[in-house]
Records
---
Amino acid sequence: MTDDSHSESTAFSPSLDAGDQENDACGNGGNGGGSRRGGKSWGKGGAKSGGKERGKDRARERPAPKPLDAAALEQMALRYVERFATTRGRLTAYLMRKIRERGWDGGTGAALAEPGELAQRMADLGYVDDRAFAEQRAAAMQRRGLGARRVAGAFREAGIDEGDAESIAPAIADRAIESALAFARRKRIGPYGTGEGDRKLHEKQLAAMLRAGHRFDLARKIVAAPPSDTPESIDFD
């Protein structure tokens, strides 16, 4: 199962664009573009050639997808959660977008198809787990050297609610130094640097750590640290 922040399936073909519609109208009309231009436009074969062109235009057309109903929307939700690790917020947004794209058949069962309620039902069945998603996302981001503020931003984007975010906050705080050192190692900052550099370079390094979401006091300590073969987390408490 992949993370839905990276990709999303689009199962339906696009409808005919405006240019194709215009060309098709000219080809089918009695006094369309072909006849107005006279015999030169027909080429060898006359009407036979024009018929082939109209056939190609029709082949490019695709029938518009049917409007969604409750059953179709539920199947779409199931396919989505089978493919992607997601959240209730993201699943709701995905389903709402599909309804906007395809339209809605408001027949029987419409109440069951409300996207927010359907996303909650997927969570009740265990197909969506916001807290597990948040824990995995936070751990992955911190391994890449991103700090708590960047993690919090990712939670907001994914629709993680405040309760789940607060429950994970202690684990994120426990990894704060480890994450900041991972970023410093990638960027050759502080204990992973050469020890050379002026105030301007240190200011740039500090700004980079802040953009990565790390606390100011922790970032400043790491930037000011001398080169070391074995930096310890305890040195930056």
Note: The beta strands are 2-3, 84-85.
---
Amino acid sequence: MANERNLIQYNGGLSPSEARENGRKGGKASGEARRKKADFRKTLNALLTAEIDSPEWSPVLEALGLDSTLESLINAAMIKEAAKGNVRAYEVIAKYSGQSAQTEAEDMEHEVKVKGMTLDNAAKQKVVNGEEKGGFSASIIEAYKKRREAEGKEVKEGKDGI
């Protein structure tokens, strides 16, 4: 790991109060970073939705029935670049317009994999919980019954038994 010398691990080197104080500092720094990111998004959205008065673009945007905003201008400029042959501009437009380079077959394959993992996890959970016939808990109970029967003892089932 890069710069692992800079990390202070709690392995007894810090007292609990020092560790708690470092955690508190980290929490405050994290909150400050979140606030800065939120402020950035708020400012960016305000700027993107600001009205523009561009002699070149405003008539075009209004003719298309769009608001004359910076956001509309940027999108139109991206489309203009893509129309000129800028492949990267086209890829960005395709990505954010909901079109994807992924084929339908790849989407279906992904869906099948996710369903398979979900079913596999559900089956494993049933075994762990003893809900699956032949699961771990059922095996233990069956072995107990066989041992009791081999000893000639009665196997009680219900509240006081198994």
Note: The helical segments are 16-48, 58-63, 70-83, 87-96, 104-129, 136-150.
---
Amino acid sequence: MDALIDAFERDVRTIPRDQFKVYQKGWEGQIGMALVDAVYSKQTLYKTKRGRGLLPRLLAFQGKHPQAGIDLRELIRLAESELRHVLGNGVTNGRTKASAVLEAASGLVELEVYTHEQYDHQNGSHRGAYLDVHGLGPVTHNYFGMLLGYPDTKPDTWIIRAVQRVTDAESLGVVVKSKLARTVVTEVHRRTKLGKTVTHMDHAIWLSERER
């Protein structure tokens, strides 16, 4: 582990410093938008050079249903078909992402979590309302918190690929999974303080790896 962290730290230090300032706040104060983004981001391009991807659909949803973006009680009043119409027919583990969003939102509402002000990313019950939904997992849960302003890392394909690339270059013989990638990035941020938060570092790594 120490050898991998040392090697990844050297790799991260080659990223241009301005990359660590690129990350902007996600959906702070907008729990509905954060939830929709977190679920729909799974295995989806956020944006493309042709102006497509998830981001334009998120902005369309926000424009059409602004109250649902900030209050989960408003979000669960929407039909699954409406979410699918605006956000697409994406599927996660054999179910629609729209149905997963609505189930997670309903679970949080049952806990009297309506807006970001009632939500606590470290609360076990709040975490369970998300993770108990079939098709949702810890990676997108981490991202949900990040979008609401909780410093964290989302070890998605690009982050895992970055850590794996360094592992292979150092011939460490390790197959990198999301949990290991998260640990490595978190520790490298603790050591280097590159980026205001670990989320800023996560985004810098994501940008750098995607551009390779």
Note: Residues 178-192 form the longest helix (15 residues).
